[in-house]
């Protein structure tokens, strides 16, 4: 997939995105411009379609039978749902980290090396493993036990390993679906610090139920609600400071003040 940047500041754009599970329209007319090398947070009550939109960004939704996507998503100028585009290739550019850490039941080293090999990496594997672990702020904790099974790491370490695994493929975007919700406060802080570091090199989109977390880590925030048909829609999208402290929309204000104020 050869990409071309339309606008250097915009990494990805959705236009009139509608996503269905069979006949149920889970989200309606989502129009978003995700800025490059910044953090965008998706917030809103349960069921408003945050994860659905997130998964559509790297075509993970298609792995769920009965899903249908209308509208377009352009990543660096390329329509990622076009017929000629391979979804596996899309996922190489747009990686994902899930709510529950899901390392492979293999060594720490192999967790990183395996994905890179499958994706055709032929360079110095030791170096890739080290730099990926360093970027994920895990290297110092695991450098002496790279052959140990990853499942023996703590939950927070496992999640940073999953981030290292995503980074090793050298994506442009990392999608994170509630990446810290299963972790203790100290591990959560580490993940948040890491997100702040990573945005120097990556575009990050994060779903979170934690308003404080959205306020701390994101540059832009998208607030979703459901309409009378239970379909999710975008109420307001803008700079995080404005969404939290000076929202334009009454519904945003009510939600933020109820959950955050
Ligand atoms: N695999 C699926 N099959 C059918 N319906 C689904 C599926 N996944 C999600 N939905 C429905 O789509 C809507 C949006 O769900 P989604 O998980 O995207 O919302 P969310 O805002 O991420 O919720 P939460 O905050 O609880 O994770 C909901 O009505 C949900 O029931």
TrEMBL record:
Query: In this protein, which residues make up the domain named ABC transporter?
Result: 12-256
Has the keyword Signal been applied to this entry?
Answer: no
What Gene3D superfamilies has UniProt attached to this entry?
A: P-loop containing nucleotide triphosphate hydrolases
Q: Which SUPFAM superfamilies match?
A: P-loop containing nucleoside triphosphate hydrolases
Which UniProt keywords are given for this protein, alphabetically ordered? ATP-binding, Nucleotide-binding, Phosphate transport, Transport
Domain of life assignment: Bacteria
- Sample GO molecular function, one term: ATP binding
CDD domains in the cross-refs = ABC_PstB_phosphate_transporter
Q: What is this protein called?
A: Phosphate transport ATP-binding protein PstB
Organism source for this protein?
A: Salinispira pacifica
The organism's taxonomy opens as:
Bacteria, Pseudomonadati, Spirochaetota, Spirochaetia, Spirochaetales
